[in-house]
Hints:
Elements: H1 3-9, H2 15-22, H3 27-37, H4 44-54, E1 64-69, H5 96-104, E2 108-112, E3 130-134, E4 145-149, E5 155-157, H6 165-169, E6 173-177, E7 182-187, H7 208-243, E8 246-251, H8 262-276, H9 281-300, H10 308-318, E9 322-324, H11 325-329, H12 344-349, E10 356-361, E11 370-373, E12 391-394
Parallel strand pairs: 1-2, 7-8
Antiparallel strand pairs: 1-12, 2-4, 3-4, 5-6, 6-7, 8-10, 9-10, 11-12
Helix pairs in contact: 1-2, 2-4, 3-4, 7-10, 8-9
Amino acid sequence: xxxxxxxxxxxxxxxxxxxxxxxxxxxxxxxxxxxxxxxxxxxxxxxxxxxxxxxxxxxxxxxxxxxxxxxxxxxxxxxxxxxxxxxxxxxxxxxxxxxxxxxxxxxxxxxxxxxxxxxxxxxxxxxxxxxxxxxxxxxxxxxxxxxxxxxxxxxxxxxxxxxxxxxxxxxxxxxxxxxxxxxxxxxxxxxxxxxxxxxxxxxxxxxxxxxxxxxxxxxxxxxxxxxxxxxxxxxxxxxxxxxxxxxxxxxxxxxxxxxxxxxxxxxxxxxxxxxxxxxxxxxxxxxxxxxxxxxxxxxxxxxxxxxxxxxxxxxxxxxxxxxxxxxxxxxxxxxxxxxxxxxxxxxxxxxxxxxxxxxxxxxxxxxxxxxxxxxxxxxxxxxxxxxxxxxxxxx
Length: 395
């Protein structure tokens, strides 16, 4: 039953007005109204107004926050240019960023993988936003995060305690402090360089030299990732103790579970459909192979972004009173945010992974109106601005 039907059932004369009031509010606000309306006086418009007012955070209500791994700010995101540095590069309306700003009008934009050097930061003139950067000093054209904000934060910090010095120099975090909330923008380390851990154990590698090299390499990168994830959790808990309202966003480089990888639940659904429609045996066999591999990876651990250690770490974070916003609001959708750019058909078919997140302190859920993934923003034929899509959080 929708809001208008509920109001009519409760004999509310101003049902259209109440529907207008609540239509843009979060699911929790609407559920609270539906519960309270059963026991309230006739004026449900007054009830709706009180509930909405009670679930607002000063300086945050109505805001829109974007998180987007842009895979290099210099590669045509703001102005179609690919020059290394061109002074006063502004956001052109026809660019992917221009499309985002025009259609969404975000209040805060959090970017990952800017791939800038510090000297490149001054090349961009982002009108209407205060801009903050943490660019890699460890390697050129690598990593980097940025926050663009219409409202000037009280302060912005780019440090994270208790992580290896190399991760600190790679420009992976920015924390913006506002009056009554904090935004943490991160680009978590990708464990691709750790290689693969044999399902049958390290002893299955017969050559002792190769075994030792692979094992040491794996342990090194996975240790760094564990330290990073632990430090992020501690940082968020410290922020929550001071600010209560904490928003984490960014490319976390991990898919949580079977639903967050296209060869998982999506493939299971495709297989069921293929069997129902009696599609070709070749098609069914191929889907069965994909599904078996993803089931195995889910149980025993997959490659980078789907390792058991990475998935355990994000679940640990979420068990500490933090909420995965998209999965909470859309439990039955895939919500993929990343697609392999080397396989153009993957994006068209939505064969992706969900590795970009908004995670908030649990008390903030009632303040959230919606969250969306803009898969096709800036996509023009085979021209794709990034292998990730922007994710927008609406308050």
